[in-house]
Amino acid sequence: MNERLARAVEDRIEDLVALTVDLVRFPTVNPPGEAYTPCAEYLGERLRRSGFETVFVRGEGAPGDSDRYPRTNVVARFDGRTRGRTVHFNSHIDVVEAGAGWTVDPFAGVVRDGRVWGRGTCDMKGGLAASVIAAEAFLAVYPDFPGAIEISGTVDEESGGFGGVAHLAKLGYFSKPRVDHVIIPEPLNKDRICLGHRGVWWAEIETKGRIAHGSMPFLGDSAIRHMGAVLSAFEQELFPALDRKQTKMPVVPEGARRSTLNLNSLHAGQTEDFRPGLPSPNVADSARLVLDRRFLIEEPIEEVKGEVIAILERLKRDRPRFDYAIRDLMAVLPQMNEQDAPVPTALADAIRLVFGREPQYVCSPGTYDQKHIARIGHLHDCVAYGPGVLDLAHQPDEWVGIDDMAESAKVMALALDALLRGRQ
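Request: output the structure for the sequence above.
Response:
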């Protein structure tokens, strides 16, 4: 253990808690994208006072970006005394809505029982704060380090990351030679290294019909009944087939080591803006189903899409008047860094030093911003590592442990030492 780095983190625990509390008090709820700019400005000013050069980059043209809800990202950089590698800590500042069921104010940043409570504490403002403290502790101990440290607070991860990391990646912020290594402090537990994630394909299926009076449905063609045939085929054929697919990826939890399909939403018939309770006297001429298909590194995306299209094409042949359209909404390939790559190696060594045990290597069931860093920035030495219990994310009474944040900050500081000063 590097005792100087460990003490430098321990000396900043009170600051770590205060920073987490301050970040939580910005209600950066997405959608629609509240309080992004003041939160980014606060983080930028904090890092500027620590010697970082900061820039603000708006995700102009990204989904949701507007003058009312600008997609404001902050990127801060501290260049060392000599040239070397660059380590980038990336955290998203957006959070999901609070929802019901809270016993504390979700945006008060309550400190109690060794924890900071509030929306975004776990996912992932606690991790963001830990990365800031890790960097500041490292700078205090090794002011003459080679290379550079970057810290970013980005937006919209909860809705795909297109106004945040994807936008920055297109501008070259996550590519060599600017950046060599990336750590994303997502809440995967303090002794686990997340090497990657499953793939995702979102698509919308529309079944088509013919409108007619509800008292004479035989004169129309119900798109809802056609969609029912699609759902029946999924239940009888597709879901059982997906359950039989298993991956060698170390995905957690265990149930996510299979292929999965979630039916996100179903819309049909009378428009949803009608007053509840009013009947519709029409035969539905359109029904729309949104699919959320999570797939494995062993599955080509052409196969994933082909399984659904084959069912739709068969129904078109066999079912009278069946017609459909399908539209891609988003597709992201599975990602998995090598276990012996520089970032996971540095983090693993640090976990052994801090906790005295071997790290667990995992993959995430859902995607996170690693996908954009790999597919747009073509930078693959990237993993997720941070404090917090993943199961608490998006839940009421979300919290992050203070000791967990401090220990994770030590791990990140030690990893910085290994990656920048060559101590791995």
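Residues 61 and 163 are 8 Å apart (CA to CA).
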